[in-house]
Amino acid sequence: MEPSAAIETAKHLLLVFGFILAVGTITGLISQKLGVPDVAIFLVAGIVIGPEILGLIDIKADSALNQTILLFGSSYILFDGGASLRFAVLKQVWITILIISTVGVVITAAVTGFAASYILGVPLIVALLLGATLASTDPATLVPIFRQVKIRDRVAQTVMSESAFNDAMGAIVTFGVLAVAMGKGEFSLSMSLVDLVKQAVIGIVAGGVLGYLAAVVIAHERWSFLAEYGPVVTLMAVIGAYFAADGLQASGFMAVFVFGIVLGNKDALGFTMEEGEAQKLDQYVLTTAFIMRIFIFILLGAQVNFKLMNQYLVGGALVVGVLMFIARPLTVFLCAMPDRRAKWSLQEMLFMCWTRETGVIPAALAGLLVGMKAPGAEMIASVTFIAILMTILIQATTTKWLGRKLGLLEDHAKTTAP
Length: 418
Fold this sequence. Notes:
globular, Na+/H+ antiporter like fold, 0% strand
């Protein structure tokens, strides 16, 4: 009896998954030896084994499987990033985080959009749509980088937090500009602000409530009846936080990030896990986040369309150059300098200007625009992939070097900080 098509498909997927894990493990070891963040090496490995070169894997970007990996993987990496933050640090820098993740997104989108209109010769509204798509930074890229490169706490936590919070604003601006581009309405600043506040509040509440409940059932002195099942609780809660917020038309990514912050600060809330259970949970989260990084960035590399990119290669690279060297640095200086409470040094602001990679979230927005047949969607997708490649391969690989040069590496900072 011949096996069914479903069984053959399942076998093929299982083989592909095993192959991706093997490639990810080897390239992860290489990145460790080279002292380079693994996301950059995973991206290159994905390009090599993808359909454009060796053709060993071919999972379409719009497939349900890829979207599931992207959705859950990004959510879990965000949870891991949130769990590494501390309330004491966030209290010092919350003003900077708030301004960069809102006003900063608009500044980045506007500067990049005007430059794209001039460089690519496209209508301004289409160029602004490109700018909005590229405006948000990528927590799925930045969280792993700061797991591997130990930068001064308040700088690393500011960059990670802002990257998580700016996704909602990036999506709002993108779809606001899209409505104008497609002739379905006019961009309303007041309505966008209301929408942003609603998404933020609901996301924070959903994540906070589930984070607190998770802390109770795994770390409360009397009610921790699921202490031995902490890893499973994190899986359930990450999925629950995302869909709780998404179902209320808020940012699911913001919810899982806040969930991570609350659970990661459970000691400050009066909850303490037994040492053995805490170590088991930490190890599980680190391993799961590593596996999610492997799948997300190898698949992202495998889906790079060089034929599409070549159409806008030179102009796209120039636009990304403006994004990296003008728009994002201008955003950081304009938004961080007014925060007198944080008292940012020049070295810290220079570092924040550089660590602003483009990744999964802009790629997802570009994919949505292509699916909706938005004006200039193919061009936007092309330039977005150029931005992903340039920012991850150039900025991520030089993060440790720059941190050392600016005296912001954790071990160096301890000896030089006042």
